[in-house]
Design a protein that fits this description.
By secondary structure, this protein is an all-alpha fold. It contains 16 helices and four strands. The protein has a two-stranded antiparallel ribbon with strand order 1-4. A two-stranded antiparallel sheet has the order 2-3. α2 runs antiparallel to α3, α2 runs parallel beside α4 and α3 crosses α7.
C-alpha cells in the first residue's frame, strides 16, 4: 500500500542539527509546535492556581455574613483578577495549547506554518499575564470586574494603575492569541497532507479552523476598546467618559461584541475534543459529521448577533430587545444539534467509560444546565429580574467550567499518553473525576437558588437573611473540594510523568493520525502517512493492514 512522504521540517537555523533535547534552554528557545503547545498548557495550569486561589479567598469571605476578612477594595481586586485570569490566562491558553500541539499532528504536518511566530505568540501572551499580575506590586490590581465597565474604569473611580496594567496586559495576551489564530488557520488551509480535503478533516481540526476565524473577527473589538480606554486614562481622550461628553455604553458594546463570541471561542475547540472522544470510546464514527461541522459554522456566524442580551438592563428600547431576544434563542439550535449528534454517536455503540469518556458524558449534563439557564436570559423580563444576581454567576460557571473545562479535561486524559508517553492510572483519574464533579456542583448549583432569592453578585459581604448563610457555606465547601481535586490532579500527573506505565503509541485504538506517531512524538512528526480516505484515516489503515490492530485491545475494528 502506497504512503505519502512528508518533507523534513525547516524549523532549525542553517547548519544546526535538530536535536531532541529536553533541557530548559531548549524549551525556552523551542519553535517546535509540540513543546510550545505543552508550554501553553503549563501556563494555563500556573494561572489556574493563581485564579483558583483568588476564588477560594472570595468564597472564604462569603462563607458567613458580615465577614471582614477582606476589605471591599481588596475583594474588588481579587474578583476582577479571578475573572480576568480564568478567561484570558487559563481557558484561552489551554485551548491554544491543545490546538497548537494537535493540529499539525492530525493533518499530517511536521510543524505549524510559521514556527517562529508560534513561539512569539506564546511568549508575548505569557508576559502579558505576568504584567497583569505585576499590578499587585505597582499600586493595586484592576478593580472594576473582568468586564471592566465604564465609568468604573475611569481615573476618578479607579485612580490606581491597575486598569492601565489590565489594558496593556490584555493587549499583549490578545496579540498572542490573534497571531496564533492566523498561524493555525494558515496551517490547516495550506499544510494538510495531500488527499485530506476539508471534508476529510477531523472534527477537532474543523473546530480549531472555525475558532481561528472567530478570534480574528472578534478580538479587534476588544483590542480597540482597550487602546481607547488607555488613551482615556493617560491622555484624557474621553472615549468612555460621560463627564467629557462621551458614552459609557460604548465600552459595553465594544466589549460584548468581543465577549459573546469569546464564549464560543472557548467552547468550540472543546466541542471538537468531545467529538473525537465520543467516537473513539463508542467505537462508532461521529453521528452526522456534516451536521457537527455545519452547526459549528452556524454558531460562529450567529455569535456576532447576540451581544446585546448582555445589555438588556441598559434601556436600549423594545425593538432592540425583541431582535436580540430572538437571536439569542436562535443560537441555541445549532448548539442543541451537537448534543443530539453526540447522543446519537453513543447510541448503540460499544461504550467504554474511561476517565476521558466520563468527563465527556458529564459535559453533556453540566453544559446543558448552563445552556438552559442561558436561554432563560434571552427572555427580557427574566433577564431584568435575574441580572446582576448569583444566578448569572451560576450560569457563567456552568458554561465555562461545565462546558469548556470539562471538555478540556476530557482531552487531557485522552491525549496525555500521547503528549507524555505515560499512562494515568484509570482508578486515580476516576477519583479525580468524582471529586471535581461533586465539588463543582456543590459550589455552583446552589447559586441558581441564591440568585433567584435575590443575592446580588459583586458584593463583598451580605446581611444574615433567610437561607443566605447555609447556601453560601455549602458553596464555599464545594469550592474547597474543587480546589483539593485540582491539587490531586497535579499530583497524579506528576506521578504519571515520573513513574507511570509506559504508554503505547495507540493506547485507545483511536482513529486519527496523531496516534500513528510515537508516544511522545519525535521532533519530526511523520516521515510518511497513509492515503487519506476519510476523517478517520488511522481507522482506515487498520482495516486494510491487520498489523496495526492492537493485540491487547478488547475491541475489534468496526
Amino acid at each position: 500500500m502506497g504512503k505519502l512522504r512528508i518533507p523534513e521540517p525547516e524549523t532549525a537555523l542553517p547548519g544546526v542539527e535538530l536535536e531532541d533535547s529536553q533541557g530548559l534552554l531548549q524549551w525556552i528557545s523551542s519553535v517546535d509546535h509540540k513543546q510550545i503547545g505543552i508550554m501553553y498548557l503549563w501556563m494555563a495550569l500556573f494561572f489556574l492556581l493563581l485564579g483558583g486561589l483568588g476564588a477560594l479567598l472570595m468564597r472564604v469571605q462569603l462563607a458567613v455574613p458580615r465577614n471582614d476578612l477582606l476589605s471591599p477594595e481588596m475583594y474588588n481586586q481579587i474578583f476582577t483578577m479571578h475573572g480576568t485570569t480564568m478567561i484570558f490566562l487559563v481557558a484561552t491558553p489551554a485551548i491554544l495549547g491543545f490546538s497548537v500541539y494537535l493540529t499539525p499532528l492530525m493533518i499530517g504536518a511536521n510543524d505549524m506554518a510559521f514556527p517562529r511566530l508560534n513561539a512569539f505568540s506564546f511568549w508575548i501572551a505569557l508576559f502579558g499575564g505576568f504584567l497583569l499580575y505585576f499590578s499587585f506590586f505597582a499600586g493595586g490590581a484592576p478593580d472594576a470586574g473582568w468586564f471592566n465597565y465604564a465609568p468604573l474604569n475611569q481615573r476618578p473611580y479607579s485612580p490606581s494603575p491597575g486598569i492601565d496594567y489590565y489594558c496593556i496586559g490584555l493587549l499583549l495576551a490578545g496579540t498572542g492569541t490573534v497571531s496564533t489564530s492566523v498561524n493555525l488557520a494558515v496551517t490547516i488551509l495550506k499544510m494538510r497532507v495531500p488527499g485530506m480535503g476539508l471534508r476529510k478533516l477531523p472534527v477537532f481540526v474543523w473546530m480549531v479552523l472555525i475558532n481561528s476565524f472567530l478570534v480574528l473577527a472578534s478580538f479587534p473589538s476588544l483590542n480597540a476598546a482597550l487602546a481607547m480606554l488607555l488613551l482615556d486614562r493617560q491622555l484624557q481622550a474621553h472615549f468612555f467618559d460621560n463627564i467629557g461628553g462621551a458614552s459609557s455604553l460604548l465600552w459595553q458594546h465594544l466589549f460584548w461584541l468581543f465577549g459573546h463570541p469569546e464564549v464560543y471561542i472557548l467552547i468550540l475547540p472543546a466541542f471538537g475534543v468531545l467529538s473525537e472522544v465520543f467516537q473513539v470510546f463508542s467505537r462508532k464514527p461521529i453521528f452526522g459529521y456534516a451536521f457537527v461541522v455545519g452547526s459549528g459554522v452556524a454558531i460562529a456566524l450567529l455569535a456576532f448577533g447576540v451581544w446585546i442580551h448582555h445589555m438588556f438592563a441598559t434601556g436600549l428600547g423594545l425593538t432592540v430587545y425583541g431582535f436580540f431576544s430572538a437571536s439569542s434563542l436562535l443560537i441555541g439550535i445549532p448548539t442543541g444539534v451537537k448534543i443530539f449528534n453526540w447522543l446519537g454517536t453513543m447510541w448503540g455503540g460499544s461504550l467504554r467509560f474511561t476517565t476521558a469518556m466520563l468527563f465527556a458524558c458529564a459535559f453533556l449534563v453540566e453544559f446543558t444546565i448552563g445552556g438552559l439557564s442561558g436561554v432563560s436570559f434571552a427572555i427580557v423580563p427574566i433577564d431584568w429580574q435575574l441580572t446582576d444576581t448569583y444566578y448569572v454567576v451560576a450560569h457563567l460557571h456552568y458554561v465555562f467550567v461545565g462546558g469548556s473545562l470539562f471538555g478540556l479535561l476530557s482531552g487531557l486524559f485522552y491525549w496525555f499518553p500521547k503528549m507524555s508517553g505515560r499512562m494515568i492510572p484509570e482508578k486515580q483519574g476516576k477519583i479525580f473525576f468524582w471529586l471535581f464533579v461533586i465539588g463543582f456542583n456543590a459550589t455552583f448549583l446552589i447559586q441558581h437558588a441564591l440568585g433567584t432569592i435575590g443575592m446580588p453578585r459583586r458584593v463583598y459581604t451580605y446581611p444574615d437573611l433567610p437561607n443566605y448563610t447555609w447556601m453560601n457555606m455549602l458553596s464555599t465547601v464545594g469550592a474547597f473540594l474543587m480546589g483539593f481535586s485540582v491539587l490531586y490532579l497535579g499530583y497524579i500527573i506528576y506521578k504519571a510523568i515520573k513513574s507511570g506505565k509506559q504508554a503505547p503509541d495507540d493506547p485507545w485504538n483511536a482513529y486519527t493520525l496523531e496516534w500513528m506517531t510515537t508516544s511522545p512524538p519525535q521532533l519530526q512528526n511523520f516521515e510518511e502517512v497513509p492515503p487519506i480516505k476519510s476523517f478517520r484515516p488511522l481507522r482506515d489503515l487498520k482495516q486494510e493492514d491487520p498489523n496495526w490492530q492492537l493485540k491487547d485491545d478488547p475491541w475489534k475494528i468496526d
